[in-house]
Specification:
The chain is α+β, with helices and mostly antiparallel strands. It contains 23 helices and 23 strands. Helix 4 (about 100-110) packs across helix 5, helix 14 packs across helix 17 (about 440-445) and helix 16 packs across helix 20 (about 510-515).
């Protein structure tokens, strides 16, 4: 008993009591600290959140700004439609998740119940279109084409349609003035997602759940300017939802208007002529394959030579951007994205890549001059060039003897450039390159802007490819394991190629440089890159960032922010070489040149024309047609995938575009009253204080007014087509 204290507690009990006291005091201090944090440090924040539980927001979406052409003609604007929407939140409160309501709604709207239900389901990785990729808490549009009768039925029978609204709303409209859809240029809209709302909440342009955002084209590039600011009115309500009074309001602001350099009239011509050129060439037989040309895709760019501003840009196949308005249907979505669609959402002017063919020879001629070869020197244009037992032939296997680099452009002589490319490869050390190898041909291509983005104000531009030594090494490293696994010495052709690539695919070989010199091999370019380079030759050497946006103008027309042309460099040759290139390209459309037969009657003395034709070989496909041209005012580039030859497929369409621009007939007579744009548009359209726009009328393009008949000008071209005036070399 002597070990028990007077309190009657053993030491073990005493320790336990102390531990319990420490724990109790710890919990007390933790609770006190938490109360201080909630009531003192963050008291104002939580008070505001508690107050917001009794506040309801009414959002008035901002009217999205218009996208205008250079003269003020709307390319995209808004119209008021009756929009029927469904509240997913309300539908999910129902026992059947709203299926009954949506079935009744489908009956009123003349739609299938499944179609309506698909539109209100949420998008995820496993859910195909149509579905809703916006916030599940905002009204989901079911249709924006409801009739007044349908809207009245829904509103008068509100008890049958809980969670359904039918009311007027501003809806995006793509107007296609004069038939100019400009689909890939304009882009389309879709609802904002929760992730986008969260990401933008602390920026100077936060999203509301009701916002529609640009997903491609100008709608995406200038989304912030076009979107404006939605108006938000907040009402204090009691626990039953009854309004007690207005809390505060954030006034809305309409979106600004974006004026572009696009001319809707020229855009309509470009779209029509590209489409017609593809239809025409599909009726012709490819002499190599014996099949009609597929002509499965194409693009055309019309650019101001002195500024880089894009006057027209068309891509085929195209689509109607109105298909996205109000939610796209499953049928339309499959039509735009399915395997058989050929992907019309792609803007092939900035995303289409192909070997360049002979239009690349301006790069090779410039590279030769940089390497020390005189432009006016004499270079043997033989019928073929041999390398290691392999013969590289000229088109038509025809030689022209010793000629200058200017004449090599005029006649599109391959062998001149084969020889120069091979000689430079040897000078750089061949298979064992020097440490200070100049690589003039590859370096010059990059200095012309190939292999990199041009900086155009459209999203998702691709870079193309310049297959220099660095690229060869990285490509080999990425594919070596696959090649080594697939390759087999003495196996099939494909196995043998893989075997050789496994062993030495990182080496820049002689035939690589020979092919590169005429824009073949692994080189890939885009139409916008080519247009930018040729425009630089036209303007004296400045490489401009192509731009479509010309100005952002406030809704009342008072605030104007012009988008000035910007340069990203200069051509890597001196003024004399640029002048020599210009003369060589001018000779291409003059007697004996490869494009002369497409420019019969052209007023060369008044409106000097320069051009280069090209036909690029693509493994496993028919040849790609290229046609690059420019005058002092405009640069026009067209390409048609699997379309055959340069001047044969694209030539007539390009000529018709120029005839429309300058108001010319077949004989070269000019009528300025009928000329669409003999000089680039310099002034901006006028927007009135009330938001109205002074836009001139525009009529659809009438091809009958154009005087050029392609059928009367032959259908030949460089490598393949041999028809046409004797002695004319076509590329």
């Amino acid at each position: 008993m002597g070990n028990i204290p007077e309190t009657g507690r053993t030491p073990r009990v005493q320790i336990r009591l102390i531990a319990i006291q420490v724990l109790v005091f710890s919990l007390f201090f933790t609770l006190a600290g938490r109360l201080w944090y909630l009531q003192v440090r963050n008291g104002d924040e939580y008070t505001e959140e508690a107050r917001s539980n009794h506040v309801q927001q009414v959002v008035e979406p901002a009217v999205r700004g218009s996208i205008l052409d250079a003269r003020g003609v709307p390319l995209a604007d808004n119209e008021t439609r009756l929009v029927v929407s469904a509240s997913r939140t309300e539908l999910m409160k129902m026992k059947d998740d709203g299926k009954g309501v949506l079935t009744r709604l489908a009956g009123v709207l003349g739609m299938e119940p499944k179609e309506v239900m698909d539109k209100v389901r949420l998008c995820d990785a496993d859910t195909p279109q149509p579905c809703w990729n916006g916030s599940p808490y905002q009204p989901i549009p079911v249709t924006d084409e409801a009739t007044p009768k349908q809207a009245l039925q829904i509103r008068e029978r509100a008890e049958d349609f809980p969670g359904i609204t039918a009311e007027p709303a501003a809806v995006r409209r793509y107007t296609a003035p004069g038939g100019a859809r400009a689909a890939q240029v304009l882009g389309y809209l879709s609802p904002v997602t929760d992730q986008e709302i969260e990401k933008a909440k602390d920026t100077d342009s936060p999203f509301l759940r009701s916002d529609m955002v640009g997903r491609s084209g100008l709608e995406r590039t200038y989304d912030k300017e076009l979107r404006g600011k939605a108006g938000v009115t907040r009402y204090e309500v009691d626990k039953l939802g009854r309004v007690l009074g207005e809390s505060e309001s954030d006034p809305g602001r309409p979106g600004s208007n974006v004026v572009t350099s696009i001319d809707a009239r020229v855009q309509a011509v470009a779209e029509y002529e590209l489409q017609q050129a593809m239809k025409t060439v599909r009726k012709e037989t490819d002499r190599i394959t014996g099949r009609p040309y597929a002509a499965d895709a194409g693009a055309v760019v019309v650019m101001e030579s002195k500024t880089g501003r894009v006057v027209a840009m068309a891509s085929q196949p195209d689509y109607d951007p109105n298909a996205w308005v109000g939610g796209i249907s499953a049928k339309e979505y499959a039509k735009l994205t399915g395997k058989g669609s050929n992907y019309p959402l792609l803007n092939r002017a900035i995303q289409g890549q192909a070997p360049a063919g002979s239009v690349f020879k301006v790069v090779s001629a410039s590279a030769a001059v940089r390497a020390g070869y005189p432009f006016d020197g004499r270079y043997n244009c033989s019928s073929s060039y041999s390398l290691g037992g392999r013969s590289f032939a000229n088109f038509e296997s025809k030689g022209h003897g010793p000629i200058s680099l200017g004449d090599a452009l005029k006649f599109s002589c391959n062998t001149v450039f084969y020889r120069l490319g091979h000689q430079e490869w040897q000078r750089d050390g061949g298979l064992k390159p020097k440490k200070d190898a100049n690589d003039w041909f590859y370096r010059t291509a990059r200095d012309f802007g190939f292999g990199d983005e041009t900086g155009i104000d459209l999203p998702n531009e691709v870079t193309g490819r310049i297959p220099d030594r660095r690229w060869k090494q990285s490509f080999w490293a990425a594919n070596k394991d696959s090649w080594c696994k697939q390759g087999k010495k003495g196996g099939s052709y494909v196995e043998q190629i893989a075997y050789e690539s496994c062993l030495e695919g990182n080496q820049l070989k002689a035939f690589d440089s020979i092919n590169f010199a005429i824009g073949q091999g692994d080189v890939l370019i885009t139409p916008i890159q080519l247009a930018t380079a040729y425009a630089a030759i036209s303007n004296g050497g400045t490489l401009y960032n192509p731009t479509i946006g010309k100005a952002v103008i406030s809704p009342d027309g008072k605030r104007i922010e012009e988008i000035k042309p910007k340069s990203h460099g200069r051509l890597p040759v001196d003024a004399q070489t640029i002048s020599d290139l210009d003369k060589g390209l001018r000779s291409v459309v003059e007697p004996g040149g490869t494009a002369a037969w497409r420019f019969g009657g052209w007023p060369q003395d008044k409106i000097p024309m320069r051009a280069k034709t090209g036909t690029a070989q693509v493994y496993g496909k028919q040849t790609t047609s290229w046609f690059a041209t420019y005058t002092d005012e405009f640069t026009v580039v067209m390409t048609i995938s699997q379309g055959g030859t340069g001047s044969g497929a694209s030539g007539p369409a390009v000529r018709n575009i120029y005839d429309a621009l300058y108001g010319l007939d077949d004989e070269g007579n000019q009528d300025l009253k009928r000329a669409l744009l003999p000089q680039p548009q310099t002034t901006l359209p006028k927007i009135q204080p009330d938001g109205t726009i002074e836009a001139p009328p525009i009529k659809p393009y009438d091809p009958e007014e154009q005087k050029v008949d392609p059928a009367e000008k032959g259908d030949g071209d460089d490598e393949q087509q041999l028809a046409g005036p004797p002695g004319v070399w076509r590329d």
